Amino acid sequence: MISRFCSQISLWLVFVWPAAVLAQSSTAEPPLPDSLPQVSVTLSDGPYIVGQPLSLSIRILVPTWMPKPPVYPVLEQPGLLVRLPEGATHPVSQRINGDTWAGTERRYRIYPLEPASFSIPEQALVLTYADDRAQPQRLELPMARVDFQAQLPEGATDMTPPVILANDLTLQQDWTGAAELEVGDAVTRTVTAQIDGTTAILLPLLIPGLAQPAAVSGDESAPLFPLKPYAKDPVLHDEDTRASLSGQRREEITYLAQAGGTALLEPIEIQWFNLKTETVETARLEGKSFQVAEPPPPPLSRQELLLRLLAMLLALGIMAILFRLLRPRLHQFTTELRQKWLGSPLYARRQVKRAIAAQELTQVMTALSSWQQFYPALDPEKSHALERRLAEIGRQKFHPGSQSQGKTVSASWAALAQEFKWLARHAKTQQRQASATTLPGLNP
Question: Strand, coil or helix: what is 60?
């Protein structure tokens, strides 16, 4: 409000006050009828540095007054940032040929954005002023052409464009979201760059994009990248005062987890030239890694459930038919296997061991008789020790005082187990040797 009030006062001083003053003095010193308004352009002294302001002033003087504000030409062009700081237009007066001429002066602040030669061409400035009869006259005055060369400081000539020259540059970032995500969760990265001594327009893109496999290869069947970025438009703000220009660039990207896996959001580095120290510096921000949990398998559709159920029923039907057809053969096969197992020497040997472990003398005698049928050539002398142990156990079992000899009975059964183990090993070895020495039968 205060600045607007001051601006209104300034315009009143420009357009009203000169008219009142000249109206009072017109009788004493009438203006020359051939006196035309004047316009002059002044450019501040060089050197002109990229990103640093240079001042361009346009002064308009009339012998009377201006009932309307002048129409200034357009100075913007590619590579130049043209600003009007606060209080850029103000009233001026000057003595010309003994008369007091009044007018305005507008001061532009121009920032070259790249090292190049610039030329602001000659243009027409339109103004309306009062002639010697106080009648408004519209006039187009040419504004002189302005040429200048923008350059980089000596220490910044080897930097990769676009070159940022400033008094200070700081970076700050904020993360919103957990480090471990699930599909559907989101994480937001906000990066703010604060620059002093130039405009924020010179700042490049802060947050690098994500290279997704599908986007790179063009293959729609490529796996999804864990995070999908959704970026907001960058927000730029410049603060232009009489002292200097500073700015801020703010970028915000929200990453949506769309697939399981690990995603690395890259660090940020911006190289810039410090005008105070005349050195190249780098502003850095750390990146961050995010783990997205694998999503659960999607639920089956009704059609898929029906297909799977039909497949299961079909498989069960085929298995039932095969089982019905093969059942007699399977029964015969299992019966033959069981008979072979029950008639094998290994089964007979295990039956003897079980009977000895159960300390059942009758079962031992029966199982031992069945086992000896598989080894008819066994030397009877090898069985004498086993028979003595059996006789010893029989005496202990049927002797009237055997109830008091529990330890002796247990020791006898243990000795019987060792004797049978030795006898079984000997019988097997003897049978193997006999088979090796038997000649095969001759062909008839």
Answer: strand
> Closest by alpha carbon to 72, among 87, 88, 55?
88
How confident is the model over 222-278, as pLDDT tens digits? Answer: 456 788 999 999 999 988 776 678 899 999 999 999 888 888 888 999 999 999 999
The tokens for 422 are 């030795």
Cβ 169 vs Cβ 204: under 8 Å? no
For residues 182 and 257, give the distance between their C-alpha atoms in angstroms, rounded to a whole number. Answer: 7
Strand, helix or coil for residue 128: strand
79 vs 81: CA distance, rounded Å: 7
Looking at residue 146, its pLDDT comes to: 93
Place of tokens 């006062």: 9
Reported as half-sphere exposure (CB side, CA atoms, 13 A), residue 430 has a value of 14
> Would the pTM of this model clear 0.70, i.e. be above it?
no
Summarised one tens digit per residue, pLDDT across range 352-373 is 889 888 888 888 888 888 888 8
Q: What is the DSSP string of 251-284?
A: EEEEEEE-SSEEEEEPPEEEEEEETTTTEEEEEE
Q: Is the dihedral of CA 49, 52, 56, 57 positive or negative?
A: negative
Three-state secondary structure call for residue 376: coil
The letter for the amino acid at 275 is L
Q: What is the DSSP letter of 403?
A: G
Lookup: tokens for 379? 């030397």
Q: Taking a C-beta distance cutoff of 8 angstroms, is the pair 129, 64 a contact?
A: yes
pLDDT over 80 (residue 213): no
Cα–Cα distances in Å, from 85 out to 166, 250, 413? 19, 23, 115
Query: Based on the number of CB atoms within 10 Å of its own CB, is 144 exposed (0-12), middle (13-18) or buried (19 or more)?
Result: middle
